[in-house]
Write a structure and sequence with these properties.
14-stranded antiparallel β-sheet, 4% helix
């Protein structure tokens, strides 16, 4: 529900409800020793009721204060179905796991309409990611749990929500009699209480063990600028572009100065993540686009577009030892259209750039115990090759 929007003081309130079920999946494949069943099947259910609202007040004809909030409760249910051997899970291992996480996400913004065409804004927002389960602890002995809690007091069957606090300031402007538009934003965010995968060493009955679990001990600083612009050069020709610079730094990760599993795979030491960049996040990205089109005498439109997209280098994992290099992709299309149909010829990755799309660290299941200190691998998504095609659509 919303109040009349022409008033200086306005409000909105609402509710929503989400109910989702994931039956679970596994990994089948061929290995050097034959067919392989590589992952258990676990059913997951999520139920999320939420309520939200906002108050908006025009302090003056140029200055607006907005206060918004969202309260939600995430109810998680996890049911083991099939184990890693392919057999149906029974006994203690089949214990269903249940947990609830509540959060309140506020957002406060100040808008200042400098001129009719230029808006300056500042905002603070907070968001959450629900927690989850360390399901491997279900079958652990009491002695193992006690030893684990002695090493990590926060360790438990569930781990808590993580939080992102974001501060942002920006300007949105339209100029050149409406032919040009630009948006420039600076943000400074903090990732808090991050969910971090660990292998915690504990000694039980004189035997050393590495217990895998997730704990809330991650923090990172995220800063950057983002730009988006558009220029209508002529009635038929338009240019647009984007640019983003994203600087990230890990402040804490895992236990003390270590517990970085990626670092252990690469260096043989759990330390080494602090001060690194977050993986899979390029520092710079940019794009340029050009559109040209006009009408035929019979009323049909012809159009064309060229896109150049650049993604900077990005690390594959938290050790920052390997990276996917910068990648530039050029796409183009040209076509004709009426009010109801469109026919276009397109070409993707015209330069046939062969840089991988993404990469992540993995552990070879058959040789990982070989020294030194173990064997790991990089698993990459191969690039999409150059492709041409003809696309036709019809609306009715």
């Amino acid at each position: 529900m919303t109040s009349p929007q022409e008033q200086a003081l306005r409000w909105t309130v609402g509710v929503n409800y989400f109910d989702g079920n994931t039956p679970g999946g596994t990994v089948y494949g061929m290995s050097p020793i034959g067919p392989l069943f590589a992952a258990a099947i676990t059913e997951q259910n999520v139920e999320t009721p939420a309520a939200f609202g906002g108050i908006y007040f025009d302090v003056t004809d140029k200055f607006t204060l907005s206060v918004e909030g969202r309260y939600q409760k995430d109810k998680l249910n996890q049911i083991p179905k099939v184990g890693t051997t392919g057999a149906v899970v029974t006994g203690l291992a089949a214990t269903p796991l249940n947990a609830s996480f509540t959060s309140f996400s506020p957002r406060v913004s100040l808008d200042y309409q400098i001129t009719e065409d230029t808006l300056l804004y500042a905002l603070f927002s907070r968001g959450y990611r629900p927690g989850g389960f360390n399901s491997g602890l279900v079958t652990s002995s009491a002695a193992t749990i006690d030893a684990l809690k002695a090493a990590v007091p926060s360790a438990g069957l569930t781990f808590e929500e993580e939080q992102l606090d974001n501060y942002e300031i920006g300007v949105k402007s339209t100029f050149m009699d409406g032919r040009a538009r630009a948006v420039l934003t600076y943000y400074d965010s903090t990732w808090k209480n991050g969910q971090v995968s660990n292998s915690v060493p504990v000694v039980v009955a004189g035997t050393a063990n590495l217990i895998p679990l997730v704990i809330n001990n991650g923090e990172a600083d995220l800063k950057g600028i983002e730009f988006e612009g558009q220029l209508q050069v002529t009635r038929n020709f338009k240019l647009s572009g984007t640019f983003a610079y994203n600087d990230t730094e890990i402040v804490s990760y895992g236990l003390g100065t270590g517990a970085c599993i990626d670092c252990s795979y690469v260096w043989g030491s759990f330390a080494g993540a602090i001060g690194n960049q977050l993986p899979t996040v390029p520092k710079t990205t940019w794009s340029l686009s050009a559109e040209l089109g006009d009408k035929f005498a019979n009323g049909l439109d012809w159009f064309s577009r060229l896109d150049v997209m650049n993604q900077g280098a990005k690390f594959t994992d938290f050790s920052n030892a390997a990276e996917i290099e910068a990648k530039q992709t050029i796409n183009a299309r040209v076509g004709i259209r009426s009010d109801v149909w469109t026919i276009e010829l397109f070409g993707n990755n015209l330069t046939d750039n062969n840089v991988a799309e993404a990469g992540l660290i993995g552990v070879d299941a058959f040789t990982f115990l070989a020294a030194p200190p173990n064997r790991n691998e990089l698993r990459v998504s191969p690039p999409l090759p150059r492709a041409f095609g003809l696309r036709a659509t019809y609306s009715f």
